[in-house]
């Protein structure tokens, strides 16, 4: 099955659909949303154009070292993005995030490439970079929600945490309810999406593969595996990040440090 390309004229025709939401925003007096939408679309077009450009060269070079360095760069950008979105101080959270995101992405991604796809060369650009990219992108959202839930809970229920310690609980036991809540809240959307996948929603990955010429049966199998590795990597990344962040969040007297950047 041949892949049907989209011409630049076709792209322009497709972009014309944006006139519908822009017109609705205008009629409702939502001028700010018009500017935000057009800015977001312009950034998307520029970023994806540049992505296609550098991926072309990465695929041509196909160097394992370059590929790993590129993944580490993606993880670094994701770490700073999480820090900014959670308003957690960078000196506190960046290193735990780097450890959590890179460790989870490499561990789960290489497991998938080596043992599921049985690739003789798992660092091949065609497979390594897309898999690491989709894992990093999905782990980012889970870490933002999980870290916000964890630290919001600690700040709101500080007395409960101290009460647990005062009654003989270890630090791990006192922190466990906050970790449990963070994992439960951050991974609930992932579980909900997995539950309705295929019946209520057809993932963009499946649609993209089918439009790109992949047989539906193969596309569905890939989506099943991607859902599993994304969920597993997100859980591992959040737990690892929380483990290292927790060790940097308290002073010698077990008092929560000033972890948030004030507005």
Summed up:
Belongs to the UPF0014 family. It contains 10 helices and no strands.
Would you write up a description of this structure?
- The chain has 263 residues and is mainly α.
- The chain folds into 2 domains: 1-61, no CATH class; 63-248, no CATH class.
- The chain is built from 10 helices and no strands.
- The radius of gyration is 22 Å and the shape is globular.
- It starts with 7 loop residues before the first helix and ends in a 15-residue tail after the last helix.
| Portion in beta strands | under 5%
Helical segment count: 10
Structural class: mainly alpha
Total domains: 2
Question: Mind summarizing the main beta sheet?
Answer: none
By DSSP, the count of extended strands is: 0
Give the CA-CA distance, first to last residue.
54 Å
Radius of gyration: 22 Å
Global geometry = globular
Q: Kindly state the mean pLDDT as a whole number?
A: 89
Helix content: over 70%
Low-confidence stretches: none
Sequence of secondary-structure elements: HHHHHHHHHH
Write the layout of secondary structure elements.
Blueprint: H1 8-15, H2 19-27, H3 31-61, H4 64-86, H5 90-116, H6 125-156, H7 158-166, H8 171-196, H9 204-211, H10 216-248
